């Protein structure tokens, strides 16, 4: 899948995994504006066939939770840090 604007490479890895899982439920699944919300957290939506909506939404929420512990920059284990704008970083990327 092509890189999504505003998404760091670590989270892009998550999105690449997620789209494969979504397409196993619905071959025509597509992201609808994967984005970072106003707090800096990953929020996901997808266009899914009616029969894939419930399991697809579960997957979307699971990956949003995974993003909370995945470094946005490198994909290693991270944690939420920051003030009004939240960042998810591993110890090595926290200083970037």
Q: Per DSSP, what share of the residues sits in E-state strands of 2 or more residues?
A: 15-25%
> What level of helicity do the residues show?
25-40%
Give the strand tally: 6
What is the 3D form?
elongated
Helix/strand order: HEEEEHEE
Number of helices: 2
Strand order of the largest sheet: 1-4
| Number of spatially distinct domains | 1
Computed over alpha carbons, the radius of gyration is: 14 Å
What is the makeup of the main sheet?
Answer: 2 strands, antiparallel
Structural notes for this entry:
Helix content is 33%, strand content 17%. With 96 residues, it is of the alpha+beta class. The protein has one domain (9-89). β5 and β6 form a beta hairpin. α1 packs antiparallel against α2. It is elongated, with a radius of gyration of 14 Å.
At a glance:
The protein is α+β, with helices and mostly antiparallel strands and 96 residues long.
Relevant terms:
elongated, two-stranded antiparallel ribbon, two-stranded antiparallel sheet, 33% helix, 96 residues, alpha+beta
What is the topological layout?
Layout: H1 9-25, E1 30-31, E2 35-36, E3 42-43, E4 46-47, H2 53-67, E5 79-82, E6 86-89
Antiparallel strand pairs: 1-4, 2-3, 5-6
């Amino acid at each position: 899948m092509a890189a999504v604007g505003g998404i760091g490479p670590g989270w892009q890895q998550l999105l690449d995994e997620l789209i494969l899982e979504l397409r196993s439920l619905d071959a025509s699944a597509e992201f609808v504006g994967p984005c970072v919300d106003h707090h800096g957290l990953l929020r996901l939506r997808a266009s899914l066939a009616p029969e894939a909506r419930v399991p697809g939404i579960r997957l979307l929420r699971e990956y949003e939770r995974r993003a909370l512990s995945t470094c946005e920059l490198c994909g290693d284990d991270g944690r939420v840090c920051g003030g009004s704008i939240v960042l998810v970083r591993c110890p090595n990327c926290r200083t970037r």
